[in-house]
Amino acid sequence: MRNLFAEDDAVALPLDVVGLRAWISMWYEHALSVGFIRPPYVLDEATSGRLESYYRLGLTPSESAGVMFGTLH
User: Fold this and answer.
1) Torsion over CA of 7, 10, 12 and 14, rounded to 10 degrees?
2) Which pLDDT score, from 0 to 100, does residue 29 have?
3) Is residue 21 a contact partner of residue 10, using CB atoms and an 8 Å limit?
């Protein structure tokens, strides 16, 4: 699995931030596997804020990718 963050960075971070980073890594892997994104994908500040909101609302990484990149009916 790809890791978007350096392993050493997690040592001094609060558990909530560590959990968010792990969740975003899972979101990235899912979005990549279903073809929503292609590397190199740069996570900008606005997108990271949206992802943090989805994380706090309790959405799964795959649900969040669908919300972010899916088509509207």
Assistant:
1) 180
2) 96
3) yes
